[in-house]
Amino acid sequence: MTTQTTASTTAATPTANASTGLIGIPPHIGRALATGGSVLTVVSTFLAWTWTAEFPGDLTFYGYPGGLQVLVLIGGALTTLFGLASHGVKGLGWLTPAGADAALKYAALGTFATAWYTILAIGFQLGGLVNLEPGGYVVAVATLIALLGALALPFERPDPDPFDPDDTGWEQFKHRTGHNMAVLRAAFASGSPRPVRALPSSVEILIIVGVLALALVVFTYGIGTEYDELFVGFLITAGFGFAALNRSGLIAHASQITARHTNITVCGAFIAAACFPFTQTDDQYATLGVYILIFATVALGLNIVVGLAGLLDLGYVAFLGVGAYAAALVSGSPSSPFGVHFPFWAAVLVGALASLVFGVLIGAPTLRLRGDYLAIVTLGFGEIFRIAANNTDGTSGPDITNGSNGIASIPDLKILGFDLGVQHDIAGFTIGRFANYFFLMLIITAVVVLVFRRSGDSRIGRAWVAIREDETAALAMGINGFRVKLIAFAVGATLAGLAGTVQAHVTYTVTPEQYLFAGTTPPNSAFLLAAVVLGGMGTIAGPLLGAALLFLIPNKLQFLGDYQLLAFGLALVLLMRFRPEGLIPNRRRQLEFHEEADAPTVLSKTGA
């Protein structure tokens, strides 16, 4: 008996590994179209896009871009620069150390998305595209031309995998879809950036200052967007703009330069953050700033537990609540049953020590558990804390927390005679209440960052990483796993309690409902864990960025109403699908998720 075999066949392709574009336009014509279309896009932003000022931003002026036109202008200018760099214009080689084509595609796509979003929003709000002025039609055509030209740029197409002709139609469809997705990824892929040459230290420090100043401008603009359409446009422009800069290799070069001057970069980042209140005319956005810092500080504390030690804690927000309640009870509030008023330094110690004690009490009997079992126990602790705070109202239990009414009328802090609850004039700038607390939280965040850096580079930090990577192997090497995990739990709880002491005074009131496992507004345990995972576990900048995004974006997306969490959850799913290592991952985790990435020559103790 013989068995007949059929050789696998490969989908027919014109030429294997052919360097062609996604669109059948000659590359030189596509390059010219992309550059010319981006120049025309810049020109169109100086024209009127609509005849009425009813659309937010007032896009009726000639010669003066406003609102969403400014974002399209920035995108068009960036696309123009990448287009000129792709033509080999002298003096622009530094702009594209990893190649210009992929960066040009992302910049053109982002400009197209922002412009067409604006055009469609005008038509939807004003009752049709008839309300457009010539500038609106010009920008729509110009961005489309630039995008088509960019998509015509050549790239190395991957060879299709062979498939069995006996496969079902569904399996062949999956095969073709997978190959098409691989082609699409290859179209937007870039090469490895060339190493940045050593520059004089003064020049590199100036570059770091420029990067931090740009970050401050972008953050200030994003947090200060006055209407919903502008914030959505900002997200589109910022997202695609960052992707374009990343594909060009500039982000990699900036990372290499900042890595050479880590201490200067960290200090510069805090100085840039301290400049934020001076860019505001009132306390409106300083309010968001101080809440972001509270959220970010707690997320960084959780990063020690989850990112370094690898312990999944689903009730971490309870430690924030313990610190807040402890500080509120000794704050002199009339709702406190103790009737004492400690100075700030004593209240901070009380809040941090209370969280430390609870961290040890909860961790000691439970940290012998691993994985899902530990997560369930910590989730239970978070719920027990909230229920206990509700029941200690003098009726269901002892009178400590005032039940669901919480501790109200918490007075503002006074530090060395400086009242944080009133306005102060500094160098001609008026600093309001929330700006005062912003500076205080900035100092506390600096302390938390220092603790994270020093502990991560210490012997105990290396033990945390060993436990995270393989607890069984770490125990076999002589590491006391229980003691190491308990220290991580205690340190993380202490840092959360430290932030809670300030939160109690910022919010005036502490109630049990502020410390849920999940809710529509942070901080809660689910959002804290998402901030760590989204930003990048085991890093410093990752949780800070993740916390800022997770607090700012839901605050700005309130116009979505009931669909807010749906859109937010969908964005998280997409991010975890395409960048599971987080926005700012350490190198080790990046290699775990992307095996094709180049291996680093040197890994730090925490893999960063």
From TrEMBL:
Membrane topology label: Multi-pass membrane protein
Domain of life where this protein originates: Bacteria
Transmembrane segments: 32-52, 64-85, 106-130, 136-155, 203-224, 230-250, 262-279, 285-307, 314-332, 344-364, 371-389, 434-452, 486-506, 526-553, 560-578
UniProt-listed Pfam families: BPD_transp_2
Database matches in InterPro entries: ABC_transp_permease, LivM-like
Coiled coil, from the record: none
Keywords per UniProt: Cell membrane, Membrane, Transmembrane, Transmembrane helix
Principal subcellular localisation of the protein: membrane
Cellular localization per UniProt: Cell membrane
This protein's record includes keyword Cytoplasm: no
Name of the featured protein: Branched-chain amino acid ABC transporter permease
UniProt organism field: Streptomyces heliomycini
